[in-house]
Amino acid sequence: MRALVVSGGGSKGAFAGGMAEHFISDLGIKYDIFTGSSTGSLLIPMLASDNVKKAKEAYTSITEKDIFTINPYKIDIKRGVVRIKMHHLNIVRSFLRGNKTLGSSKKLRKTISKFFCKNEFQKIKDMNRNVIVTVSNLSRNVVEYKALKDCNYEDFCDWIWASANFLPFMSLVTKNGMEYGDGGFGNNIPIQSAIDAGATEIDVIVLDPIYSVSNRMPSANAIDLLFNVFDYLLDQTTASRLELSKLKGKNRAVKINVYHTPNKLTENSLIFNKKRMTRWWKEGKEYARKVKKQSVIIQPEK
Predict the structure, then answer these.
(1) Torsions phi, psi of 212, nearest 5?
(2) Is 120 exposed, middle or buried (0-12, 13-18, 19+ CB in 10 A)?
(3) Are 106 and 162 spatial neighbours (Cβ–Cβ below 8 Å)?
(4) Residue pLDDT, tens place only, 170-193
(5) Cα–Cα nearest to 17, from 66, 46, 56, 63
(6) ∠ at Cα 67 (66, 71), nearest 5°?
(7) pTM over the 0.85 mark
(8) First vs last Cα of the chain: how many Å apart?
C-alpha cells in the first residue's frame, strides 16, 4: 500500500498541494493512505477525495479572515519587510470572552466544512481509503492519530480543526473532556502513523528545506518572539522525528521517499497571502516534476 504524508507548515501547505497535484493528477499515483499534521491535516482529506481542484481553490484563496474570529496579531509591512505586531485590543477581547488563548479560530472550523463536505467524507469511506490526522492531546500529554474511518463527519472535521490550531494564537479545542491543539507540536511529520497503517511505500512532503539557516530580525514584540520560539522548537522536533521514522521504516521494510522544499519559503507561516500562496502552489508542482527522480529515498533493509 502506498501513502502520502504531508507535514505541518501553515500557509506553506500551498507548496505541498502543488507537489501532490503533480503526483496524483499528472503521474497518476494512487494512494491508499493519507496522513498529515496541522496544515497537512487540512490538505489530505481534499486530496483523498480526489478533489485536487478544491484543494487548490482553498490554498490559493483563503486569508486570515477565513481563519480567525479574533486575530491576535496584525501584519505590518515596511520597506518590503513583513513583521508581526500584537493586536492588543483583540487579545483583550479574546480574554473577555473567556478564551484561554490569545485569539480565536472558530472561522477555520466553518471553512473546513466549506471545502470538505459530507459527500466527500462519505466518498472516502466508500473508496476505503485511510485518512489520518494528527492531534496533540494536552490533557494527557500524548500524540493521537484520528482516522476518518473511525469517525462521523462532524467529529472528523473537529479533529482536522484541532490539528491545525497553532496555540496560543488559535483556539484550544475541548473534546471528550480533553484539551487538544496543533498536531505539529507532537509529531510534525506523521510518517509513523502511515507505517502503522500498513504502508509499504511512503511519499513524504516536508515543508522545510533539508538544511535551513535563518537570519531573523530581532524580535519586535512578544508575539514576534513567540512565533520565533515556536518555529525554532518545531524545527528541532521535526528533524528528530524524521530520523526516527527513517529508522522505523528500515526495520519494517518500508520504502520512504522524502521531498523537502528547495528553500525556506517564509519566516512566518501564519501569514496567508493569496498571491504568494498561488505562486507556491505553482512552484510546488514545478518542483515535483524536477525532483521526482531525485528524491531522498530511504531503502528498506534486506
Answers:
(1) -120, 120
(2) middle
(3) no
(4) 999 999 999 999 998 889 999 989
(5) 56
(6) 115
(7) yes
(8) 19
